[in-house]
Recover the amino acids of this structure.
């Protein structure tokens, strides 16, 4: 049996055992559970730091798309000029101009693809840094609730909702006052 399937089966078994031993009337995470659940995507989109990260990503994507549109528009205009000049050019001269144009278009598209891939890799790195920043919070939550593991809720078939600590984790992220990464947004002030 593949490791991923064994992990899923184990998670489901733990969930079913946990459901049998917990009251479904609870609404807060149990004081002591074998495991807890989070929604990683919601931690990203629900926390102030995550929202700042996503906004920065979108701004950089918009900038790259805008540059690509400008380059495309310039090439379209140049292609139109080349087409109009064709009647007045010798065949060999036109072919040289057309070949040069084609090479520049291919090079520009290759450059855009390279920049897009680099941006995607940078976004991936920033998200991993975000989750690394969250890791100590999750460790503290495990200790607080006496849990042995935290699973993403999307990998669990069925579980009691009192095991889900996503909102608690988001609150902890937003309460952080340190800023270990220079591009991270300052979290909003909170009052205790």
């Amino acid at each position: 049996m593949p490791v991923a399937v064994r992990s899923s089966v184990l998670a489901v078994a733990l969930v079913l055992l946990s459901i049998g031993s917990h009251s479904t009337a609870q609404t807060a995470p149990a004081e002591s559970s074998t495991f807890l659940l989070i929604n990683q995507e919601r931690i990203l989109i629900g926390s102030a730091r995550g929202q700042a990260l996503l906004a920065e990503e979108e701004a950089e994507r918009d900038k790259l798309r805008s540059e690509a549109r400008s380059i495309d528009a310039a090439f379209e205009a140049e292609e139109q000029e080349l087409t109009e000049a064709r009647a007045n050019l010798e065949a060999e001269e036109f072919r040289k101009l057309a070949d040069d144009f084609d090479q520049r278009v291919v090079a520009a598209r290759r450059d855009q693809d390279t920049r897009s891939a680099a941006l995607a890799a940078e976004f991936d790195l920033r998200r991993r840094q975000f989750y690394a920043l969250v890791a100590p919070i999750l460790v503290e939550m495990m200790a607080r609730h006496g849990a042995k593991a935290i699973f993403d809720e999307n990998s669990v078939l069925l579980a009691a909702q009192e095991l889900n600590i996503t909102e608690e984790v988001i609150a902890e992220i937003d309460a952080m006052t340190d800023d270990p990464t220079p591009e991270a947004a300052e979290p909003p002030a909170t009052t205790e």
Q: What stands out?
A: DSSP finds five helices and two strands in the chain.
